[in-house]
Amino acid sequence: MSCFCAAQAQADVRLVTAATIHTGAADAPVATALAWDTADGRVLAVGDRQALLTLYPLAPLTDLGDVTVVPGLIDAHAHLMYLGQTLMQADLTGADSRAEVVARLQRFAADHPDGWLLGNGWDQNRWADTRFPSAADLDAAFPDRPVWLGRVDGHAGWGNSAALRALAAVPGQRTLQGRWQPAGGRIERDAAGRPTGVFVDEAMGLMQAAIPAPTAAAREQMLTRALAAAASQGLTGVHDMGVSREDLALMRRFADAGRLPLRIEAYADGNGGALDDLCAQGPYRHAGGHLAMRGVKLFMDGALGSRGAALLADYSDDPHNRGLLVTSPADFETAVRKADGCGLQVATHAIGDRGNRIVLDTYARVLGERSGGDHRWRVEHAQVVALEDIPRFAQGKVIASMQPTHATSDMGWAQDRVGPQRILGAYAWRRMLAAGVPLALGSDFPVEQVDPRLGLYAAVTRQDRTGHPPAGWQPDQRLSAAEALRGFTADAAFAGRDEDRVGRLQPGLQADFVVFDRDPLQVPPAQLADLQVRATWVGGTPVYEAAR
Question: What pLDDT does residue 271 have?
């Protein structure tokens, strides 16, 4: 048994017991009882049920029964406000055709008749005709009401002709006709130079200028719904990537009011004012322990699904296209040096092999002799990496922040994009671990579902929910259940520079834990996605309990 013995006499103690408690601690990995100080939520002791009952005979006891407790799950890459936004829009996830998209929009529009019609989640790779859609696909059903639909990866948007007219009417907006392209983005055009209705990466910002901003009440509802959704899936922490100054202000108000049920490690939007604020005011942590901002999120390239990821050679299915650099290498290095000078952790979105190489090169130049130190700089996604660059992550102590469900969502078309050789360095979790690369796991929700059980399942099986392909896609890159769980707990905590507070259940750390109906380290891999979340506890307080 491990304990904080000095605190035993004074602490107001609470106990839980369960059939199995996985602590994540190497010296005592399994226990049946957990005790913590209710004043600050810190674990006091973990060990045998009878030993803790003897140690704390007067402490209130909750016997959870025949369940398994694991350390609180941390999503190392997600977007809370974006999730909340999508929960208030038409859900197009999984739509198998343009016609199904339109049908879903019509049903949603019947209940939401006013203003812009907004939706999210379409993916042309699921359709029989995998080309990008166009405004014309929406115009018959919505000739006059502006429609704007975000692609599943958040890196492209699709509007109808009414939306294009609204954009053209924005004061100061340059004509959309012609061949010009915005920096870091792409407007899809027809042969005559007319926009087709799809805007990729930074080009989406043009349309955002035409869409009315959500009200303060709507933004509060977005955050409330996103937090509730995350807690219900067993998440006790989220690394929220690209948080604006406005979103941080809202989160701070929630933290002040005790309305944050889980812990948010916010990374400032490097393209907005949040980085300037962070440099001026210094790294931030709320006194309540549920909100911090100590790092910055930067962008290097686009996404693979919309062919915006920056590649070293042409796309295999799109000759003469090598993707997009959302940020120029020079501007990126300037931003990295600024963040470094402000004492901030740097996390950079890089998906293509060229994007990843530029990030690794830049990190090495800026860090210099510190490159092998404990800087905790991260690459978000690290999705397609040249095989010779994988060891450079380990050499530079760069964390690979990866999302298992991206592999199983993309496996039907990823090799079409990059071919049989480059795919060997894609979604290469096992190669990363074998090279000694720190690996943190997340979901990128709402690009993927806000459900870490799906991440565990994808990491261990490399199959979709139907069990396809039978042996798993690139099965040599699978993780064990223990490795996957660690990626969502201790390794995610390490990536967030929070391993001294969360990620394991051991004395001195917070009593953040999830109660599952079964043991994720013992069930057949096919059952990982079906584990039931019985409860989510943060700091020794239940923030979600399933209905019985």
Answer: 84
Instruction: Tell me how far apart the alpha carbons of residues 134 and 131 are, in angstroms, rounded to a whole number.
Output: 9
pTM to 2 decimal places: 0.94
Question: Are the C-beta atoms of residues 520 and 531 closer than 8 Å to each other?
Answer: yes
Question: In this structure, which amino acid lies at residue 224?
Answer: T
**Which pLDDT score, from 0 to 100, does residue 274 have?**
87
Q: Which of 273, 268, 335 is nearest to 300 (CA)?
A: 335
Tokens of 231: 């807690």
Listed as ranges, residues in the chain with pLDDT below 50 are: 6-10
Question: Among 497, 509, 515, which residue's Cα sits nearest to residue 539?
Answer: 509
* Pair 403, 444: CB distance under 8 Å: yes
Cα–Cα distance measured from residue 492 to residue 383, given in angstroms and rounded to the nearest whole number: 17
Give residue limits of the domains in the chain.
116-208, 300-479
* Closest residue by Cα to residue 302 from 161, 168, 417: 417
CA geometry: angle at 243 spanning 242 and 248, to 5°?
170
The answer to whether 419 and 444 have CB atoms below 8 angstroms apart is no
Please state, in angstroms and rounded to a whole number, the distance separating the CA atoms of residues 468 and 134.
Answer: 31
pLDDT at 7: 46
- The number of beta carbons lying within 10 Å of the beta carbon of residue 496 is 29
Render pLDDT for 193-236 as a digit per residue (tens, 0 to 9). Answer: 999 999 999 999 999 999 999 999 999 999 999 999 999 999 99
Q: Is 529 helix (H, G, I), strand (E, B) or coil?
A: helix
Can you give the pLDDT at residue 11?
59
From residue 43, alpha-carbon distances to 1, 290, 487 in Å are: 12, 17, 21
Residue range 17-39, pLDDT digits in tens = 999 999 999 999 999 999 999 99
Q: Topology of domain 116-208, per CATH?
A: Diaminopimelate Epimerase; Chain A, domain 1 (3.10.310)
Taking the C-alpha atoms of residue 86 and residue 111, their distance in angstroms, rounded to an integer, is 16
CATH class held by domain 300-479 = alpha beta
Tokens of 138: 């929406």
pLDDT of residue 10: 45
The pLDDT assigned to 4 comes to 62
* Beta bridge partners of residue 21, listed in sequence order: 31, 69
- Residues with Cβ within 8 Å of 114's Cβ and at least 6 positions away in sequence, in order, are none
- What's the token pair of residue 474? 């690139």
